[in-house]
Amino acid sequence: MLRTFIVLAPLALVALPARAQAPDDAQIAAIVVAANQVDIDAGRLASARATNPDVKAFAERMITDHAGVNDAAAELVARLGVTPAPNETSRSLEDGGRRNLARLKALEGRAFDDAYIAHEAAYHQQVLEALDSTLIPSASNGELRALLVKVRPAFVAHLEHARALQAKLGGQSR
Amino acid sequence: MTTPARMAGVGLGLFALVALVPAAMPAEAVRPVGGEHAAAPAVHTVVIEATSFRPATLRVRVGDTIVWRNDDMFPHTATSGEAGFDSGAIAPGDSWRLTIAGEAGARTYVCTYHPTMMGVLEVLAAR
Fold first, then answer.
1. What CA–CA distance (Å, rounded) separates A168 from A166?
2. Nearest CA in chain B to A58
3. What is the pLDDT of residues B90-120, one digit of tens each?
């Protein structure tokens, strides 16, 4: 019960518009770039500020992996001649990312580590849901869809990694 | 002049048919096992993509070489505490190779960066 409450609280910060119209490929490209960039920015803050070495290593992994995905996405959209089109969902992700950074910047030590990892778990869960419900089904270009399908297991791995760290840190219940 | 040409065509067709038969059989079935004419060690490739080892389970023999090729968008490792090997970071587009030594038996390995990634090497005795 307590755990449910803890997970739901950060979810509100990253919630995607539930009834947005199906995005086109240019909008999907902007959503993918925003989703990765938001996590890179949080990772940069956490790699500098986290005190737990496992949390720091996780943050560095997020920077590396999400930058790798964005490089691949940028290469693909350039090759396809698609210009990423910012939209309600991509802006919502960026706004959520800014709010998360502002909240995290007010924290230090163990409280920072706990809050960062809890948000990472919720964030990856949310992006996975968006991939499954909207992004993968809406992608019309085969290569774009293939990229999203190829990326999906990384989000699963990141989610599991974040949850394992949450369990190791003892969650936020103390 | 058409007859030799047609015969050559038939010959090629037969050759292709014969060539297809061993290719269609499992690789293990056509390799001599042990004895004086033991086959050379094989090289196997594990492709790393979509945050997975493919194939996740690979049957090899002592003396064989395994190449892990990273076709993913970010680095991975192939690491086994029990078998005592660790590739370190394999960058996208790079490979890492390992020749299997020691005893027959299964070795599990993981990517130390991604907890969902696991592979198994089923190691048989040397050829």
1. 5
2. B113
3. 999 999 999 999 999 999 999 999 999 999 9
CATH number of the domain at A74, please.
1.20.1260.10
Q: Give the Cα separation of A120 and A161 in Å (integer).
A: 10
Amino acid at A31: I
Q: Which domain holds residue A55?
A: 24-169
The answer to whether A69 contacts B52, with C-beta atoms less than 8 Å apart, is no
Q: DSSP string covering B46-99, please?
A: EEEETTEEESSEEEEETT-EEEEEE-SSS-B--EETTTTEE---B-TT-EEEEE
Q: Name which of A61, A68, A149 is nearest B92 (Cβ-Cβ).
A: A68
Q: Cα distance from B105 to chain A (closest Cα, Å)? A: 28
Tell me what ipTM this predicted complex has. 0.85
Instruction: Compute the distance between CA of residue A109 and CA of residue A169 in angstroms, rounded to an integer.
Output: 12
End-to-end CA gap in chain B = 50
Q: Is A85 part of a structural domain of the chain? A: yes
User: What's the CA gap between B76 and A156, in Å, rounded?
Assistant: 15
> Any idea what DSSP says for residue A135?
I
Strand segments, DSSP code E, in A44-161 are none
CATH classification code of B43-124? 2.60.40.420
DSSP letter assigned to residue A22? P
pTM greater than 0.90? no
Q: Measured between CB atoms, does A124 come within 8 Å of chain B?
A: no
